[in-house]
Design goal:
single chain, alpha/beta, Rossmann fold, seven-stranded parallel β-sheet, 16% strand, SDR_fam, SDR family oxidoreductase
């Protein structure tokens, strides 16, 4: 097998958007390194699974080390792992805060730092993070300050890294979705959640996957926060 075949690391890969991304990248002949706390081994020899908490630097280091050892390179990193906690601000606990910071920010920091170090060796690469449209457009009745604080940090880091690495061949972008129809949203909530979007529906996993694939192929796009939110960020 040629080491020229592209390799993508996907966090939060066991279900929902992450599982959709694994399938989409495999369909495009990428080798995939898939991580989540509960991920199980894959029968596909081109999919390497690494279980563990992305907030732990040792896990992030193992993911990148095994990607390079098994497949020889890292071309794309999709920071998909994330926690979303919708509570009134004064109802958040210290554990809620630690969990959100750990996965959404610390996890991003460790895996992105280690992946970019590998990308620099080949003078090419792409990092794309999944954030949230709520950063730009808060919604009455959806109390989500920890999501906005942590994912807003990712949006800011995306632009900063894009400029820092623009001349080194590494692009950095983000996708900011609205509410996506995944297993985390019970079917009985779908009607109310659809109403949060001007287009009148929830997003599908394919909507986010298509946005990530676009950015991965868009060689002249870096520092972009691509809203995939049914018009949420435009207004109501």
């Amino acid at each position: 097998m040629s080491n020229q075949q592209k390799v993508v690391i996907i966090t939060g890969a066991s279900q929902g958007i992450g599982a959709g991304l694994v399938k989409a990248f495999r369909d495009r002949n990428y080798r995939v390194v898939a991580n989540s706390r509960s991920i199980t081994p894959s029968s596909d020899p081109e999919v390497l699974t690494v279980a563990g908490d992305i907030a732990d630097r040792a896990v992030a280091a193992r993911i990148v080390k095994e990607a390079v050892s098994r497949f020889g390179r890292v071309d794309t990193l999709v920071n998909n792992a994330g926690i979303f906690s919708a509570k009134p601000f004064t109802g958040f606990t210290a554990q809620d805060y630690a969990d959100n910071i750990g996965v959404n920010l610390t996890g991003f920091f460790h895996i992105t730092q280690l992946a970019i170090a590998e990308m620099e060796k080949q003078h090419s690469g792409h990092v794309v993070s999944i954030t949230t449209s709520l950063v730009d457009h808060a919604i009455d009745g959806v109390p989500s300050v920890l999501a906005s604080m942590t994912k807003g940090g990712l949006n800011a880091a995306t632009k900063s890294l894009a400029i820092e690495y623009a001349k080194r061949g590494v692009r950095v972008n983000a996708v900011a979705p609205g509410v996506i129809k995944t297993p985390m949203h019970a079917p009985e909530t779908h009607g109310a959640l659809a109403g949060l979007h001007p287009v009148g529906r929830m997003g599908d996993i394919a909507d986010v996957v298509d946005a990530v694939l676009y950015l991965d192929n868009a060689a002249f796009v870096t520092g972009e926060i691509l809203h995939v939110d049914g018009g949420q960020s435009a207004g109501h």
